[in-house]
Fold this protein.
Amino acid sequence: MPEIKKILQNFGLTENETEVYLILLRLGSATASDILEKISIHRINLYDILERLQEKGFVSFVILGKRKAYEAVGPEIFLEIEKEKEQQLKAIMPELISNRQLNKIPQDATIFKDKKGIKNILDEIAQSKKFDYFASGWGFYQYFPEYADIWAGKIKKSKTKARCLISNKFRSKKVIEKVNYKYLPNEFNFPSTTIIWNDKVFIIMWNEQPMGILIRSQAVKDSYKQFFEMLWKTAKK
């Protein structure tokens, strides 16, 4: 019985409503007095419960002389309610799925603690249609010299469009020919190289053992891109 009550309550019945419904189901037809003999609640509360059960469609009544007799609607009504809920859910399912797909923003992050992993991502960037990046200085040439010129060569040979923001104090350093450079005041000194492309951001911390963090997120990329564009407008050729 406890399990039956719990299941019926899933259909929007309170504990007392469930109890009254089950009593009527056993009695077949009963007056309020008959029901009160089976349950310990106040008569006024019982009438409130019976009225709610009628509104929900679980109980009906007939007038017998001067008395009102109540009857429980057959339990098949719960199957009908369940079927109706299923039909309603099926009707709105395409829209729910569509909304989920529209709002689903892929996002993940990967950490690279070796030069091989960083090289693979840099190769991908060099082959992209376009990318922007904040240069940290000359950490690339200092800590990954064996690949720095190779990457520069790949950019020159590719059809990619690249823009770079870097501190003015590095203006005298050699640059990659195909990259469009702009310079920020000397006090701008980015602690890492940050590259923005497609729906990704790649951050490289240069030291004896470089580490890269690849973030795949349209929202994060858009945030970095907005910051880049703001600085690009103020930077000097």
Summary: The chain has two domains: 2-73, 107-234.
